[in-house]
Amino acid sequence: MYELSFIAKYLRPKRKQLSSSIIGLISVFIIAAVVWLIVVFFSVANGITNGWIDKLIALTAPVRVTPTDEYYNSYYYLVDSISLASDYTTKSIEEKQKALLSDPYDPELDEEIPQNWPLADRNEKNELKDPIKGLYQSIAEIDKVKGLAVFNFEMAPASLHLNFFTADHQQKAISQGVYLSSFDAENKKLRQSVTPLSSVDLSKLSSKIVLKEPNLHFALQAFYQNANASETSEIPHSDSYGEGMLLPKAFNEMGVSVGDRGFITYQIMTATSPKELKEPIFVAGFYDPGIFPMGSKFLVANRSLVSSIRSFFPVEEYPMMNGVDIRFENRENAL
What we know:
The protein is of the alpha+beta class. About 35% of the residues lie in helices and about 20% in strands. It contains eleven helices and nine strands. Strands 1, 2, 3, 4, 5, 6, 7, 8 and 9 form a nine-stranded mixed sheet that branches. Helix 8 runs antiparallel to helix 9. The radius of gyration is 29 Å and the shape is flat.
């Protein structure tokens, strides 16, 4: 009550003190307006920040686990390259997770372990420690985080080649280096970042696909209907059109539209020389990469295609190509 009586002393008009009351009243309004503006500013800034963060982690995740150089130089990773049970091929994280044997090495069938390899990290029972299965076991034990989901992501470098017609019927072509990122159908933020089909896109889509590939046209419509729903589906593809891909919306601003066709190329090493391989693709849609630094070069494709291309690259030389995304509804749980 003291505070109110103190304020009323300066706001209640008195004889020969009207100017003081007016100044006090104006001061109260100014202070209230400043406080209101500060609250609005921080609310808007917080909303913008949250929007940026949501877009930033749409392609990644609040928590991303990637192997270190120590992992790729460990006995656990290298032993597959000399083991018959592993087809003498090193494995991705997903393959390691699904493998029945943590240590596929058989001394009676496989070659001798190189002397320069690090020693195997074993437990008290002389069993090889499995960091991948240990990671998934640790994640499974977290039961307090709502909406916890795990996704084995893969990426691969490639070159994109597109031929398309702009709105003014000019033919153009795009050729640039890109990164292919695996599509997570359960990633709600990524599905919500997919740009809805406009009426122009629908008309172009009908003229490009519906007459030649009606099943693909229906699959694309179903994909967009499910984009903001709880249902999940892969990016549509067909035998004649190839794999569908989601491109950053910057491509749409350059004149590329849904249904445009092209191909991606990537190089592999053969016994004699490098060889270029080609995969037909078509534009299945566009997405908003937000403020992701490399977002303009990230194409989203089904994991089967990305995994196939990534397998041709030595993952130890590209450590960010494979890892585990851990998602949950409240990103503050990452702290």
